[in-house]
Each structure stands twice: as structure tokens, then as C-alpha cells.
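Weekly modeling sync, notes
Attendees: S.R. (lead), two postdocs, one rotation student

Agenda item 3: backlog of single-chain predictions. S.R. asked that every request posted to the team notebook include the full sequence so nobody has to chase files. The rotation student volunteered to paste the first one in as an example of the format we agreed on. Action items at the bottom.

Example entry:
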Amino acid sequence: MDSKELIKKAAWVRMEVLESTVSGGKGHIGGTYSCTDILVALYYGKILRFKLDNPGWEDRDRFILSKGHASLALFAIFKDMGIISPGLYETYGKNGGLGGQVDISLPGIETNTGSLGHSIGIAAGMALAAKMDSRDYYAYTMIGDAELFEGSVWEALMFGSQHKLNNLVVIIDRNRLSVMETIDDDNSVFMNFGRKLELFGWNYLELDGHNMDEILAVLGMVKLSDKPSIVMANTVKGKGVSFMENKANWHHGVPTKEQVEIARKELSSQWV
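Predicted structure, as returned to the notebook:
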């Protein structure tokens, strides 16, 4: 797919997330919409290497969605690609069906998520295993920006540098909203962030998390690095629906009937 097709696909995924949230009666729309474009680029833009007919292929790239509450976007992508069935997809929100996080019982999922702060360490272990086994796959993980307040994240960053894991890629969904709090750039964690990561021995990159050309270009560049890479993706929580954008209260929630119609109209205009 070219970037125009990927943009349309992202709008379709957002529409699927909306409809699933309404039918399931729950959903983390805001944080899902902020990372939708990146997920679409990873899976449809030839960034991740995988085989649809063999989810357990040994040389597949590993991907961990640490912010597992954005699961609905991943479920929509998996349904579209045939990784999960439409019947399973429709169980979202029902007892015994798909839930609000990703779990290892599903094809294409590498590990359970929901407990924040662990995914970089797990991905680092996968990247190290690839080195030890002389395999060339990459390990990717996407985390939320608030996850950087977890100490285990920084331990994993040091581990990745120590072992020179240039096949390890961390993507930060920098939507600047953590449930109900704003995480400004002058926060102690984010001040001079790029310089901090460079001192940690990482390749640091930034991108506009809603510019498809930029996403494809930057994520393609990480494979040229001799260091582990961390990508700061500047995003907007609730991206794609005007009344949700940059609104903390859309971390989790179900829109009203009137809001659903507005969202449908706005999203459908983006994929025609």
C-alpha cells in the first residue's frame, strides 16, 4: 500500500474501533486513535516482517503492543488480514470474548499486556535471543508516554544498550495525556529526552505520528542503526474525531448516539 491507501486504511480501522466500542459498550478510544496510524504502517506498510499463513514463523519480527488498551485497533487489523475470524472479532465486550487488552491466546500476539513497564524488557530479551540464535528478526514494542515513569523501563533501556541490540525498536505514543493528566515537555522525564536517550546509548528519532510518509520513512531508517532505536511519535489522543481530540475524558468511554453520528461522518470523509 502507498501512503494514501494507508491513510484510508487507518480511517477504516478507526471506524471499526468506534463501532466495536459502541456494540461492546466499552473501549479506550482516545489512546487507540493516537496510535492507529503507526499500527497501520507497521502491519500494512511492510515494516514488520511476518507470514499471514504462519503466525509462529521463527523469523518473524516480534511486536508487543505494551499499551494493550489500544487492542481494538489491533483486533480490527487482525480481522482484516484474516489472522482472527470475523466471528471472534464480534465477541468483543461479551463474556468469554475479546477483552480490553491483548493476550497470548490469540494468534499474532507475542505476550500478554496490561501491566505496564515490562514490554521493553521482554522485547529486549527477544532481540537478544535473535542475536544468540544468529537470526535476523527485529523486536518492536509500542509504549505509552506515561509508561516512561516506570523504573523497569529505564533498566531495560540500559540492558538494550549494554548488549548492543540494534534489532530492538521502541516506539513511544507521545499523546501527552495519561488518563486524566497532561504530561508536558517540561516534565522531568521529558526534558532533554533525546539527549538522555543518546547518553543511554540509543539511536533517538522523532516523527509526526499522524504523517504516514514520515512514519514509513523513519521506521525504515531504524534498520540502518548500529544501536537500539527509540522513536518518539508525537500524536494526538482521539485523533480523527474532532470532539475527542486532545480530550483526556476520552481515555475510556462510549459516545452517545449523537456523538456516534458525528464520529461516523468525520471518519467516513477520511477514507473516500
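Discussion: group reviewed the output briefly. Strands lie at 62-65, 139-144, 168-174, 177-178, 181-182, 203-208, 229-234.
Action items: rotation student to repeat for the remaining queue; S.R. to check formatting next week.
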